[in-house]
Amino acid sequence: MQHLYTNNRNNSKRILAHRKTWFRSNAMEMTAASKKQIEVSIMSSDANIQSRWMDDYYEQRSSLSIFDLIDSENIRARSIATAVDNKDIDTAKALSCNEAPINTINELLATANITVKINLGQDAQLFATKNGNDYYSVAELSDGERNALLIAADVLTAKSGSLIIIDEPERHLHRSIVSPLLSSLFQKRADCTFIISTHYVFLPLDNPSSSVLMVRGCTWSGNTITGWDADLITASENISQDLKKDILGAKRNILFIEGEYESLDRQIYQLIYPDVSVIPQGNCVNVERAVEGIKRTEELHWINAFGLIDVDDRTQEQIHKLIEKGIFALSCYSVESLYYHVEIINKIANRVANTTGEDPVALKDKALSSIIPNICKHKDRLSSRLSEKRVRSKIMGVLPKHKDILNQDIFSIEIDLKSELIKERKSYFR
């Protein structure tokens, strides 16, 4: 962000990530002459590489924002007053159609669900009111409210055609506020170009016409950055919103799994594959769609997408077809089965033994002797769940097609559920 500003500083406005969001006063604290001098000093300071983490003018920046906001309000009022004094009512009416900056800010705050209204009072002081209560100084706003006010003031008072660089707008702002506020500012200042650095993935999703540069790292030579590792998703690429949501913030290697974000599946897989982004998709159908969606999108050639699903009593033919698509079925019934795998039990026994000094073999034998009787108590329920998938698969495999219906054939199917249950019980509980 600092590099982008340095190369365009004569036509840029930069809002720092490490910005100060509080200010001492709700009025202009500087003269017009001192303001110009400070702006020149800030422009020079921001071109320095140290401005990435330091701010020599943190005291003055917020005061500049307040000055510009009040000044823009006064300039508008003077322009209208001058036209009226000259009896040029048509010009006065035309100038009044340009919305006052503070009115625009109040509109933006309301859009962002911030129930605060700003007002310019006597002696050119800014006041705030909430829910129609008494006015108070804008310096007394909350951190988030002040941050929203300062960002809006900086953007609305920028010169036409400016490059506006905003680093981490989400600071002190709730997620439900960031996107509505920024999206509204983009619309209000369509005459400017924006570059936003953010960790909030929903901001580009809420602005589908934007291009997204996913910065993954950089290369250093001493204290100088010589290169960047990044991937670009342009606005012209035909990528669905759901797919883009999965990709943004993810690593280049993505594993789509069943279950939800809070589910056991995701937690286990994240431990097993620490260098991969594990993204839950709910069910196996959604996993297939996500993997296929990425693989058939040429613009996403830099993503390695795979799927991992429960075997769910699939046939070998079905499993091989899934592998061809980059989707793999577990060798066990479901990922939770890992807890009962002998190898896992053995590793846990060794870990406990290292801590307690007990015999690992005895610990393993004790665990196995407890697991089997406990599982046997639930053999009918477990067998019925296994049978359910097999029975449903059988039914789906013989359902009549449209040709059968056209031929007006007689369709019937009969399944002995008792024998299916017994078959599963014998397979797993001998």
Description of the molecule:
- By secondary structure, the protein is of the alpha/beta class.
- The chain folds into three domains: 2-210, 3-Layer(aba) Sandwich (Rossmann fold); 241-340, Dna Topoisomerase Vi A Subunit, Chain: A, domain 2 (3-Layer(aba) Sandwich); 379-430, no CATH class.
- It contains 17 helices and twelve strands.
- It has helices spanning 2-7, 32-46, 58-85, 89-96, 101-111, 143-156, 175-188, 202-205, 241-247, 264-272, 284-295, 316-324, 342-356, 360-376, 379-398, 402-406, 417-428; strands at 12-15, 116-120, 126-130, 136-137, 163-167, 193-197, 212-221, 224-233, 253-257, 277-280, 304-309, 327-329.
- The strands form four sheets. It has a four-stranded parallel sheet, with helices on both faces. A three-stranded parallel sheet has the order 1-5-6, with helices on one face.
- A hairpin with a 5-residue loop joins strand 2 and strand 3.
- Helix 3 crosses helix 6 (143-156) and helix 13 (342-356) packs across helix 14 (360-376).
- The protein is elongated, with a radius of gyration of 32 Å.
Structural descriptors:
single chain; 430 residues; alpha/beta; Rossmann fold; Dna Topoisomerase Vi A Subunit, Chain: A, domain 2; 3 domains; 4-stranded parallel sheet; 3-stranded parallel sheet; 15% strand; elongated
Rg over CA atoms = 32 Å
Total number of helical segments?
Answer: 17
Q: What is the 3D form?
A: elongated
How confident is the prediction overall: mean pLDDT? Answer: 87
Q: Which blocks of ≥5 consecutive residues have pLDDT under 50?
A: none
The N- to C-terminal Cα distance equals: 66 Å
And the CATH topology of the largest domain?
Rossmann fold
The biggest beta sheet, please? 4 strands, parallel
**Name of the CATH class of the largest domain:** Alpha Beta
Tally of structural domains: 3
Q: Strands of the largest sheet, in order across it? A: 10-9-11-12
How much strand? 5-15%
Give me the strand/helix succession: HEHHHHEEEHEHEHEEHEHEHEHEHHHHH
- Write the CATH architecture name of the largest domain: 3-Layer(aba) Sandwich
Structural class: alpha/beta
The helix fraction, in percent, is 40-55%
Number of E-state strands: 12
